[in-house]
Amino acid sequence: MKTKHAFIYSLVLTGVLTTLNTYAQYFGQNKIGYQTFHFKVRQTQNFALHHYTPNDSVRDHWAVQSERWYNTLRQVLRDSIRFRNPIILYNNHADFQQTNVTAGNIDPSTGGFAEGIKNRIVMPMMHANAQTDHVLGHEIVHAMQFQMMLNGNDSLSLSNMMRLPLWFVEGMAEYLSIGAIDAHTAMWLRDGVQSNKMPTLDDLTNNPRFFPYRWGHAFWAFVTGTWGEGVIRPLFLSAGKWGYEGAIPRILGVSVREFNQRWHNALRQTYVPFMVEPILPKRLLAPQVVSQMQLAPALSPDGRLVAYLSEKGLFSIEVFLADARTGRVLRKLANTARNPHFDAISYLESAGTWSPDSKQFMFTVFAKGKNRLVIANARNGRVTREIEIPGVPAFSNPAWSPDGLHVVVSGLVNGQSDLYIYHLRNRTVRQLTNDRASELQPAWSPDGRTLVYVTDAPAKRDDRPFAYDHRLAIFDLPTETKRILPIFAGADNLNPTFGVDNQMIYFLSDRDGYRNIYAYNPYRSQAYQLTRYFTGVSGITPHSPALSVARETGEFAYTVFENQAYQMYRAEGQELLWERLTSKDATLEGAILPPQPRFEQDFVSARLNSSKTPLPIESLNRSFESRAYRSRLGLVGISGGGTGSAGIGSNRLGTNLQGGINAAWTDMLGNKQLGVGLALTGRLSDASGQITYMNRKRRINWGVGLSHVGFTTGRQGVGIDTLTSNDGQRVPVQTTFLDEQRTFEQQLSFFSYLPLSRTRRIEMSAGASRFSFRTVRDIDYFFRGQQVLEDRFRLLNPNDIFTGSVGAAFVGDNTNLGPLGPLRGQRFRFGVDASFGPVQLQTLTADYRHYFRIRPFTLATRGLVLARTGRDATTGFLPPLFVGFPTLVRGYAAQQFWRDGQTPLSLSDLQGRNMAVGNVELRFPLTGNPRLAALRSGAFPSELSLFADAGMAWGQFAPLPNIIRASEAERAFRPVPVTSTGVSLRVNLLGAIILEPFYAIPWQRGGTSNGVLGLNISAAW
Q1: 58-72 b/e with 16+ CB inside 10 Å = b?
Q2: Which pLDDT tens digit goes with each residue over 780-800?
Q3: Strand, coil or helix: 611
């Protein structure tokens, strides 16, 4: 749930190859392209900035910043990128979530990512300029890391970077884009000291409890502060070759164990002298509420209720409502899994707001590629209204006016963040500010005449290109004038709110490096400190709202970071410190990361805070060029042993070749994707191949495929024949033969799917196929036990068959997945597939699954019906449906019938052209995440299941020769329901494979006296 700047390696290739086959995906949630983006390219000296913003000023600002970052970073890393590095810049996060560069869904907490195959940087512009700038610098570091691995040593490659721990790679990007002064990382370090939970490097590598971005940042700050920034490049390259365990002794001259000791000592020496005993009002929520994230508290005006964001439900961040006096959680106000109208809640840096009468709560969601306001009834949790603000596709931190008629938001339009006011009755919108500065987190005064907000506009000229200070400002609505308040310049002052009158403004500030609550009277120019926490009052990021004041009662609710969790507190005004401050300056002493003092040369921090512009904007602008985006396909990778794989194998049909290769091409934006696959599993004549093209530029995704696939089966037999001897006599001989039966399919297919929402879609397909056949017989002749002759010849084969097919399906999936399968939600697929031409067959599919979460159990249910109709449903062209597969009804596998031979049930009783299956499982997590399972385990999550299966096959089909005995033919089509019960254990082996050994009691095959052990290799259905 933390802010992420992901970097992607060969995963991109895997995603592309998977995406090329998404039309065949049975279930799964959708990635939706709600809009068609018309990208253009702005070329700088070192970057190709892909954008679609009409705001030239915004475009060129980030083009300049990319060059500034690059010129700063290459001086530290002593390396360069030898081509124009692509940057794909989206106007806002909702647009960014629609990117096709990666096939996976993007969470609201993902700030951007870089991938190493094309060295693409993909990111959105954000509400705060500081956020956009930080992510830009962070991802340029990753782009340079990729190049360092490729350029630094002949023995290094991107695969070496994949083996480095996340904290090592991400921490380096954080240090180089932030420096050694950061109040947010310092808060995490102080919490580790206070709770005595300071990780070793091994802990950072293996224990997910320690956030890799913050602790990785601290690692690099300590390394550079002790040994100097000159070790960054050699330590990174050495770690790529030897791992961090081998690199630290080689480059730093100390063992990993000694490094841990020195690091922990520096943390204690820096922070222990400043530990304080804060005034601790009681926690807001009741003690029995288990939650590590209690975020963005919003007190109702009357102080009775509090709405907040939490992962209490385990599966996602959701909006909850609690009684602010008793701490009892009353209800959930929003659930994305059950509401198909919006895709996700905007939780990272946005809070909700109450109506003046405390009866309704408003919050921000992502829906259909934009932000929307959602209003919920506090009494029953029902959504009463959804609002799309015209002309403002992205916004955050709504604030409901005291008169109940307006809402003001921080709106992001074409990369520029301004204040907008929306009239709830007239449905009109008005822009209040219009400048390049970021205007954030607005709040109303009680009389409704004034807004207080956050801005990064300087109070005086400030040319620091990488520094963004956040100051408080006031906007007077009657006169439409604004002024910046002279308080704590140089610090981050955020989350302002008025109290019960128009005189006092409450806000959060890190003016001394510790984030606490302050009060400021702008009319008397007097400031007060209200809290003194050793860790800090904070949300997930520095811009996350963490403070709320009840408009009528003046009560406070706020979030404190402690023991690696975010806990809400409630306080009356008189319970706080109210320490009068004589200085309005900011020192930031507590934000300096250990060690202190630092190494004498600290280039990164000096450059990030320099008042000298490293590159003049005018000279950079003269070198910029614009061009149209060219949608050219480029190779993104080859899989199958690196450049393919090949070998020799053998089976019952003899010695053969085995191998395969896959290659994928995409355009820069990932909209157009081409995949080619070749496979060989026999002789050269058995080679299979597929070419697939997919276009994902618009809402309806479509593609075409051309394939040639060979299927090989075999049949053995014995017989009697005669041979003619040399003297012309007919001699009886015994024969054994082996038939190699090959079926070849050449298919041209068209497929498309229309996502209706994140959880529902319509799939369509059509195709034309040609089936050809070839059978070769190898025959041996024996006379009196001695082989006398062998022969090989082709048998007469059927004529080629040409068929056409069409299909359509309605698919839904809103499940929350665990490490072994779904934990909550529902899935369904209703489809029809039809073949026409020489083969006329229709297949109907109805598959519905529901998962009920009854903590800690999951009750899973499934109902599946498959039915074949049409002229050839009974001709045997397709094999019959069989309910005894272990993934359907356990305990009735075909081999069990051949093994015992004595059973009142025939194998043919479980086959037919129609099939119905029902399953119920009660799943109990044994090992895994401690909030899910009884025992903690990161490597081997497991669950124990009690199951009951039932199924029945019916409907006449043509029995395959030599499979069903003639005596059984007359009863081969009777419907016989079968049931089984049992127990299974599913184990996830390091995320690579899921094994499910089970013990089933087949009640129609002897019951408890004939129990069956079996094994499935698949995730839970």
Answers
A1: bbbbbbbbbbbbbeb
A2: 999 888 888 889 888 888 888
A3: coil
Question: Residues in the chain with pLDDT < 70?
Answer: 1-24, 152, 278-280, 313-314, 335-341, 459-467, 601, 608-622, 640-659, 681-683, 713-714, 876-877, 894-904, 938, 958-973
Distance CA 871, CA 843 (A): 12
Q: How many CB atoms lie within 10 A of CB 563?
A: 13
Closest C-alpha among 384, 414, 561, 511 to residue 90: 414
CA angle 313, 318, 320 (to 5 degrees): 90
The reported pLDDT for the residue numbered 643 is 37
CA 532/CA 98 separation, integer angstroms: 42
Residues whose CB is less than 8 angstroms from the CB of residue 465 and which lie 6 or more positions away in sequence, other chains included: 65, 68, 610, 613, 614
Query: Do the strands 505-509 and 516-521 form a parallel or antiparallel pair, or are they unpaired?
Result: antiparallel
**H or E segment at 526?**
strand 526-529
N-term to C-term CA, the chain: 27
CB 41 within 8 A of CB 627: yes
Structure tokens at 430: 């008005």
Q: Whole-angstrom Cα distance, residue 134 to residue 886?
A: 52
Kindly report, residue by residue over 354-366, the tens digit of the pLDDT. 999 999 999 999 9
DSSP 8-state symbol, 697: S
Alpha helical stretches, state H, 53-128: 56-77, 93-96
Matching residue, tokens 């005596």: 967
What contacts 912, CB < 8 A, 6 or more positions away?
A: 880, 881, 953, 954, 955, 956, 957, 973, 975
Query: Minimal CA–CA distance to 534: which of 749, 335, 346, 272?
Result: 272
| Amino acid occupying residue 688 | S
Is the alpha carbon torsion for 989, 990, 991, 992 positive or negative? negative
Q: By 3-state DSSP, what share of the chain in percent is helix, strand and coil, each rounded to 5? A: 20, 40, 40
H-run or E-run covering 242:
helix 232-247
> What is the predicted pLDDT for the residue at 209?
87
Q: How far is 967 from 509, CA to CA, in rounded Å? A: 87
Angle at 645 between CA 640 and CA 648, to 5 degrees: 145
CB of 995 closer than 8 Å to CB of 986: yes
Q: Are 381 and 354 in contact (CB under 8 A)?
A: no
Handedness of CA 696, 100, 990, 158 (dihedral sign): positive
Exposure pattern of 118-133 as b/e (b: 16+ CB <10 Å)?
A: bbbbbbbbbbbbbbbb
Nearest to 777 by CA among 734, 719, 736: 736
